Amino acid sequence: MINVMIVDDHDLVRTCLKRILNDINGIDVIAEVCNGEQAIDVARSKKPDIVLMDISMPGIGGLEATRRITASFPAIRVIALTVHEEIPFPTCLLEAGASGYLTKGCDVMEVINAINTVYRGQQYLTRDVAERVAFTSLRNRNRTPLERLSDREAEVMMMIIQGIRNKDIAEMLCLSPKTTSTLRYRLHEKLGVCNDVELTRYAIRHGIIKETGIS
After folding, report:
1. Which CATH number fits the domain 144-214, given the four candidates 1.10.10.10, 3.40.50.150, 1.10.260.40, 2.120.10.30?
2. How far is CA 67 from the centre of its chain?
3. Beta strand 77-82 with 100-103: parallel, antiparallel or unpaired?
4. Staple 110 to which of 61, 106, 148, 156, CB 3.0 to 4.6 Å?
């Protein structure tokens, strides 16, 4: 039996996934949580085999949660399940320790296939994401500003556009305020924005968030 935990801040997504996966022989959803902090706590107590992890959530988000879970519990394998398919998100999640990357546009059978593949110790990426990751190294000279972000910079960006203050970002990510400020400066510089308002507009323009909130 493959024990799965679902991490997503949308109740409808969690409920639908749970019902679908619990109807599959050999898969059991043992937990569902709505943010990264809860995911870390439940991973510690229930030790799921697989975590289906959203990226954009309140608090520390899926990237930092993935990093902490895979570092503390190497036997737990994380599969990102998100709306974000553009670089740098897939590469950031893989560097943070994720074993798989799915977009929410995939079908149910691909989710099941990914769970089984990752459970066997292999990686699984949707085809489009796999192509983006494979060609990233070939496009180094022509990378977009988003593709040039480090995983930490991408993580800080997601938290800034949620309106989280610098001090709180530092605490959530276990960084010094000075380091967080430096990451913010580099982020602004790479994306060519002058402040957080412009950063939010940039995120909307490139589909990272919708005008009503994080996608």
Report:
1. 1.10.10.10
2. 10
3. parallel
4. 106
The predicted model scores a pTM of: 0.71
Query: What are the sequence ranges of the domains in the chain?
Result: 2-136, 144-214
**Domain 2-136, CATH 3.40.50.720 — does that match?**
no
d(CA 128, CA 198): 29
Is 140 within 8 Å of 173 (Cβ atoms)? no
DSSP string covering 74-99, please? TT-EEEEEES--STTHHHHHHHTT-S
Q: From the first residue on, what is the mean pLDDT of each consecutive set of 10 residues in the chain (215 residues)?
A: 96 94 96 95 97 90 92 95 81 89 91 96 87 60 70 85 87 87 87 86 76 48
4 phi, psi to nearest 5 deg: -120, 140
